[in-house]
Amino acid sequence: MKLNKFGIDDSPIPISGFYAPCSHPQVSSHLTLLAESLPSDSNDESVVSPIIRSNRNRCSVPGILYNTNTMESFQALDKQGLFKAEAMKIWEDIHSGKAVEDCAALSRFLLISFADLKKWNFHYWFAFPALALDPPATLVDLRPASQWFTLEEAESVSAACNEWRNSSATADVPFFLVSIGSDSSAAARHLKDSEACQHDGQKLLFAFYDPCHLPNNPGWPLRNFLALISSRWNLKTVCFLCYRENRGFADLNLSLVGEALVSVQPGRVAQILGNSLFFG
């Protein structure tokens, strides 16, 4: 595409990465780019190949690519400025409500690169903006989901999550709600349905596809998810489900349930995490 379509045009290009929930107790699921992550061959460069969508193993994440023409241009890029601009897009999507309608925007990323096509060498750096709560959230409980639910709840939660993952309409939607009624029946629902879930004494968990395999650590998508929850719903206590699976089905022994205390004031999700911004 550099040779035949973009040429010397180094304008930013919208791309898609993808990831899936962790499915192995010792291996995390990484964000990945393939050829179809680039824009399609249509005239509209904002259109990404449809193979990325509606695929349970390719949960789409929006990104932006800056592909430079020279190594000097690659090194001279204002990395901090570009990084902060992408982080601000996440914050703006949270404030506008777009992050509720299209929750994959919470995991927006940045990629800068230089393709030395004469030597067939490729230089690239990824960056993943994270919004930091001020003060930080406090994790007060984290344990395997199988230890958090009753047997009846666990069976129902597993069924609800499996239904969510197996539906073509929701398989690649990485953030969702799990509500549990007083009769132990569970349902997985879109984030926009949160108000309907907060009644009649229902338990409500904010769930996300967790690519991390570590037994004592939530995965990286939780950071911006907490920023959204704090800003939009102003909850002081957040119960969350780190959804992980095995052989394509919910695994509540691998999955985690945690409780976080959030004391940030409305509108004061303050800063962008500034350490380890880029990974090459």
Task: Describe this entry's structure for a reader.
Strand 7 and strand 8 (186-189) form a beta hairpin. The chain has helices spanning 2-6, 71-76, 79-96, 98-101, 145-148, 151-166, 194-197, 222-233, and strands at residues 13-19, 59-68, 109-116, 121-127, 131-132, 138-144, 175-180, 186-189, 203-209, 237-243, 245-246, 249-250, 256-261, 271-272, 278-279. Helix 3 (79-96) crosses helix 8. It is of the alpha+beta class and 280 residues long. The protein folds into two domains: 2-130 and 273-279, Cytidine Deaminase, domain 2, CATH 3.40.140; 138-261, Ubiquitin-like modifier-activating enzyme ATG7 C-terminal domain (Cytidine Deaminase, domain 2), CATH 3.40.140. A six-stranded mixed beta sheet has the order 6-13-10-9-7-8, sandwiched between helices. Strands 1-2-3-4-15 form a five-stranded mixed beta sheet. The chain has eight helices and 15 strands.
Across the major sheet, the strand order is: 6-13-10-9-7-8
Return residue spans where pLDDT drops below 50 for at least 5 consecutive residues. 45-52, 272-280
- How many DSSP H or I helices? 8
CATH topology of the largest domain: Cytidine Deaminase, domain 2
Biggest beta-sheet profile: 6 strands, mixed
Overall 3D shape: elongated
**Percent of residues in helices:** 10-25%
- The total beta strand count reads 15
CATH class of the largest domain: Alpha Beta
Distance between the termini: 22 Å
Task: Name the CATH homologous superfamily of the largest domain.
Answer: Ubiquitin-like modifier-activating enzyme ATG7 N-terminal domain
Proportion of beta-strand residues: 25-35%
CATH architecture of the largest domain: 3-Layer(aba) Sandwich
* Helical/strand content category: alpha+beta
What's the domain count? Answer: 2
Task: List the secondary-structure elements in sequence, H or E.
Answer: HEEHHHEEEEHHEEHEHEEEEEE
